[in-house]
From TrEMBL:
Signal peptide residue numbers: 1-17
Keywords, in A-Z order: Signal
Domain of life: Bacteria
The protein, known as: DUF4129 domain-containing protein
Record organism: Pseudonocardia autotrophica
Species lineage: Bacteria, Bacillati, Actinomycetota, Actinomycetes, Pseudonocardiales
Amino acid sequence: MLLSVVAVTLSCMVATAEQVARIPAGNLRVPPGDLAAVWAAAERRSFEQSKRGVLDWYAAAVVATCMWLACAIYRPPWGRPHPAEAPVSRTRASAYEELIEAEYLAAERFEELHPRRAEREPGWAEGARATLRWAWRGEGTPPIDVEGWSVAG
Protein backbone atom coordinates (compact mmCIF):
# COMPACT_ATOMS: atom_id res chain seq x y z
CA MET A 1 0.00 0.00 0.00
CA LEU A 2 1.17 3.52 -0.79
CA LEU A 3 1.42 6.18 1.84
CA SER A 4 -1.85 7.96 2.55
CA VAL A 5 -1.99 11.46 1.17
CA VAL A 6 -3.45 14.01 3.57
CA ALA A 7 -3.19 17.07 1.33
CA VAL A 8 -1.88 17.18 -2.20
CA THR A 9 -1.59 20.40 -4.14
CA LEU A 10 -2.78 19.82 -7.68
CA SER A 11 -2.82 22.16 -10.66
CA CYS A 12 -6.45 23.10 -10.27
CA MET A 13 -7.45 21.81 -6.86
CA VAL A 14 -6.19 20.59 -3.53
CA ALA A 15 -7.12 17.01 -2.67
CA THR A 16 -7.70 17.02 1.06
CA ALA A 17 -8.16 13.97 3.24
CA GLU A 18 -11.87 14.81 3.35
CA GLN A 19 -12.12 14.92 -0.45
CA VAL A 20 -10.27 11.63 -0.78
CA ALA A 21 -12.60 10.12 1.83
CA ARG A 22 -15.60 11.21 -0.28
CA ILE A 23 -14.53 9.19 -3.33
CA PRO A 24 -17.41 6.75 -3.89
CA ALA A 25 -16.30 3.35 -2.58
CA GLY A 26 -17.63 1.54 -5.66
CA ASN A 27 -15.44 3.62 -7.99
CA LEU A 28 -12.14 2.06 -6.94
CA ARG A 29 -10.52 -1.34 -6.47
CA VAL A 30 -7.51 0.32 -4.80
CA PRO A 31 -7.37 2.34 -1.57
CA PRO A 32 -8.39 5.99 -2.10
CA GLY A 33 -5.06 7.14 -0.63
CA ASP A 34 -3.24 5.15 -3.32
CA LEU A 35 -5.29 6.87 -6.03
CA ALA A 36 -4.45 10.26 -4.48
CA ALA A 37 -0.74 9.39 -4.39
CA VAL A 38 -0.74 8.32 -8.06
CA TRP A 39 -2.72 11.44 -8.98
CA ALA A 40 -0.18 13.67 -7.22
CA ALA A 41 2.75 11.84 -8.84
CA ALA A 42 1.17 12.28 -12.28
CA GLU A 43 0.63 15.99 -11.57
CA ARG A 44 4.30 16.32 -10.61
CA ARG A 45 5.47 14.45 -13.70
CA SER A 46 3.27 16.57 -15.95
CA PHE A 47 4.54 19.79 -14.34
CA GLU A 48 8.19 18.71 -14.56
CA GLN A 49 7.79 17.77 -18.22
CA SER A 50 6.05 21.06 -19.03
CA LYS A 51 8.99 22.99 -17.53
CA ARG A 52 11.12 21.26 -20.19
CA GLY A 53 8.64 22.15 -22.92
CA VAL A 54 7.30 18.59 -23.18
CA LEU A 55 3.58 17.86 -23.28
CA ASP A 56 3.22 14.52 -21.47
CA TRP A 57 -0.11 13.14 -22.68
CA TYR A 58 0.36 9.96 -20.66
CA ALA A 59 0.69 11.82 -17.34
CA ALA A 60 -2.16 14.16 -18.30
CA ALA A 61 -4.42 11.16 -18.95
CA VAL A 62 -3.52 9.66 -15.58
CA VAL A 63 -4.44 12.95 -13.87
CA ALA A 64 -7.70 13.28 -15.83
CA THR A 65 -8.69 9.68 -15.12
CA CYS A 66 -7.94 10.01 -11.40
CA MET A 67 -9.95 13.24 -11.21
CA TRP A 68 -12.91 11.62 -12.95
CA LEU A 69 -12.83 8.47 -10.81
CA ALA A 70 -12.73 10.71 -7.72
CA CYS A 71 -15.76 12.70 -8.95
CA ALA A 72 -13.59 15.81 -8.57
CA ILE A 73 -14.55 19.29 -9.65
CA TYR A 74 -12.17 20.77 -12.21
CA ARG A 75 -11.43 24.44 -11.55
CA PRO A 76 -9.95 25.83 -14.77
CA PRO A 77 -7.83 28.99 -14.75
CA TRP A 78 -10.69 30.63 -16.64
CA GLY A 79 -14.37 29.81 -16.82
CA ARG A 80 -16.58 28.06 -14.35
CA PRO A 81 -15.69 25.00 -12.31
CA HIS A 82 -17.25 21.83 -13.65
CA PRO A 83 -17.17 18.09 -13.00
CA ALA A 84 -14.04 16.40 -14.30
CA GLU A 85 -14.49 14.84 -17.74
CA ALA A 86 -14.19 11.14 -18.40
CA PRO A 87 -10.86 10.48 -20.17
CA VAL A 88 -12.26 8.80 -23.29
CA SER A 89 -15.91 9.80 -23.77
CA ARG A 90 -15.35 13.25 -22.24
CA THR A 91 -18.71 13.08 -20.51
CA ARG A 92 -19.02 15.33 -17.48
CA ALA A 93 -21.31 12.83 -15.77
CA SER A 94 -19.94 11.80 -12.39
CA ALA A 95 -18.23 8.44 -12.39
CA TYR A 96 -20.25 5.48 -11.13
CA GLU A 97 -19.69 1.76 -11.55
CA GLU A 98 -21.54 1.12 -14.83
CA LEU A 99 -20.18 4.27 -16.43
CA ILE A 100 -16.63 3.46 -15.31
CA GLU A 101 -16.88 0.01 -16.89
CA ALA A 102 -18.17 1.55 -20.14
CA GLU A 103 -15.28 4.04 -20.05
CA TYR A 104 -12.80 1.20 -19.46
CA LEU A 105 -14.15 -0.70 -22.47
CA ALA A 106 -13.99 2.47 -24.59
CA ALA A 107 -10.39 3.05 -23.44
CA GLU A 108 -9.50 -0.44 -24.66
CA ARG A 109 -10.74 0.62 -28.12
CA PHE A 110 -9.51 4.24 -28.00
CA GLU A 111 -7.46 4.16 -31.20
CA GLU A 112 -10.33 2.56 -33.10
CA LEU A 113 -12.96 4.96 -31.71
CA HIS A 114 -10.85 8.14 -31.83
CA PRO A 115 -8.07 7.71 -34.43
CA ARG A 116 -7.40 11.44 -34.91
CA ARG A 117 -7.34 12.09 -31.18
CA ALA A 118 -4.98 9.13 -30.69
CA GLU A 119 -2.62 10.67 -33.24
CA ARG A 120 -2.89 14.19 -31.74
CA GLU A 121 -2.50 13.02 -28.13
CA PRO A 122 0.17 10.27 -28.10
CA GLY A 123 0.17 8.50 -24.76
CA TRP A 124 -3.34 9.57 -23.72
CA ALA A 125 -4.94 6.20 -24.48
CA GLU A 126 -2.19 4.32 -22.66
CA GLY A 127 -2.48 6.59 -19.60
CA ALA A 128 -6.26 6.26 -19.41
CA ARG A 129 -6.12 2.48 -19.94
CA ALA A 130 -3.37 1.94 -17.37
CA THR A 131 -5.18 4.05 -14.76
CA LEU A 132 -8.55 2.40 -15.30
CA ARG A 133 -7.00 -1.08 -15.39
CA TRP A 134 -5.23 -0.44 -12.07
CA ALA A 135 -7.77 1.69 -10.18
CA TRP A 136 -11.03 0.25 -11.55
CA ARG A 137 -10.17 -3.34 -12.44
CA GLY A 138 -7.58 -3.74 -9.68
CA GLU A 139 -5.13 -5.26 -12.15
CA GLY A 140 -1.46 -4.54 -12.68
CA THR A 141 0.73 -1.84 -11.21
CA PRO A 142 0.02 1.87 -10.72
CA PRO A 143 0.27 3.85 -13.96
CA ILE A 144 2.90 6.23 -12.52
CA ASP A 145 5.90 5.46 -10.34
CA VAL A 146 5.07 6.21 -6.69
CA GLU A 147 7.29 5.23 -3.78
CA GLY A 148 9.25 2.72 -5.83
CA TRP A 149 6.36 1.15 -7.74
CA SER A 150 7.15 0.58 -11.41
CA VAL A 151 6.01 2.92 -14.14
CA ALA A 152 3.62 1.51 -16.73
CA GLY A 153 4.10 4.27 -19.29
